[in-house]
Amino acid sequence: MKKDYPIIDLHCHLRNDIPGHTKIAKESGINLVLYMANSKPPLDNLEQIKKSLKKKRYCRAIPVSAITKDLAGKELVEVDKIKPYVAGFSDDGQYLKDLNLLKEILKKNVLVLVHCSPPYDAGIKKPYLETKFVKRYLKTLKESGGKLHIQHISKKDTVELIRKAKKEGLKVTCETCPHYFTYTKDDLETKVNPPLALKEDVLAIKRGLKDGTIDAISSDYAPMPRITGMAGFKAFLPLSYGLVLAGVLSEKQLKEKLFINPKKIIESKGYKLNLI
Ligand SMILES: [Zn+2]
User: Fold this and answer.
1) What is the 137 CA–ligand 1 centroid distance (Å)?
2) Can you give the pLDDT of all 276 residues of the chain as single tens digits?
3) Which residue among 85, 99, 135, 232 is buried most deeply as judged by most CB within 10 Å?
4) What one-character-per-residue DSSP string does 169-214 give?
5) Number of structural domains, the chain?
6) Active site residue: 17, 91, 215, 220, which one?
C-alpha cells in the first residue's frame, strides 16, 4: 500500500484517555483520530474538552463534543463556546431521540455526526433498527436544512436510503467500519453497534463504498473494558486495503475514504486541519 498521505480515522473511543490508545493508532499507521465524547466525565463542556486536549497523545487526536449535556439527550451543550475546540458534535452510541434538538444543532453551522442506531441498553429488543433511524434523521435534515454525517452504517437498506438522499441533493455524508464490509453475523461473535449483519449487507456496503454513497471508513476503536465495540485500530488499514486487493476499490478511491473525504468532512464547517 502506497501510504503517501495521512490516514484519518473519523471515529474512535479513547474513553479513559490512556495515551496507549493513540500509541496503538500510530503503530497501526493512523495519523489522526477523532475521538468521541463518552469518556468519564463526558466531553460535554469546555473545561473537560480543554483538559482532554492537554493529554499526551502519540498521534494527532481531535475531540468530538457531546451534542447534549451528559449525553442524556435532553439539553444542548454550549455549542458556540465549544465549537472552536472540537471537530464536531455527536452523542454517538447514545442516539438523539429528540429530533428537535437535532434541528437546533443543525442550524448552528457545526459538523453534526449522528449514530445510525440505538444503543444496546435502550431497552429496544430488535437490534435491526438502523434504517428506521437513518430515515428519521434524513427527514429531519430535509426539514431543517444543514449538513449531517451519519456514523458507521452497516445495512443494505441504509445504503440505499443514503444513495437516494444524495441523489436528491441532501447534504449528507456517511462512514462505515471495516467489520461491516468484512464480517457477517455468522463469521464473528461480537457485540458491536450496529450489530454485524448478513452477506447481502456486507456486499451492499462494498457497493456503497465503490459508488461513493459511503464517503469514509472509520475504525470505531473501543478500548477495554469493552461492553460493546471492537479493538479496531490494528485491523483498520489491513482490512481497508483488502478492498483494493479484492478489486472493490482502486488505490485512488481508498485514499478518498481514508484521507480526502474525512478531511473534507472535518473541514466542511470551518475547522482547519492544516495538513498537506
Ligand atoms: Zn462509536
Assistant:
1) 17
2) 667 899 999 999 998 767 789 999 999 999 999 999 999 899 999 999 999 999 999 999 999 999 999 999 999 999 999 999 999 999 987 778 899 999 999 999 999 999 877 665 544 455 568 888 899 999 999 999 999 999 989 999 999 999 999 999 999 999 999 999 999 989 887 778 888 889 999 999 999 999 999 999 999 998 876 666 677 899 999 999 999 999 999 999 999 999 999 999 999 998 999 886
3) 232
4) T--EEEEE-HHHHH--TTT-----SSPP--HHHHHHHHHHHHTTSS
5) 1
6) 220
Q: What's the gap in Å between 221 CA and the centre of ligand 1?
A: 8
Q: How close is the Cα of 178 to the center of ligand 1, in Å?
A: 13
**Is position 186 annotated as part of the catalytic site?**
no
* Residue that is written with C-alpha cell 428506521 in the block: 132
Its domain, for residue 178, covers: 8-267
Give the CATH number of the domain where residue 174 resides: 3.20.20.140
Task: Tell me how far the alpha carbon of residue 72 lies from the centroid of ligand 1, in angstroms.
Answer: 16
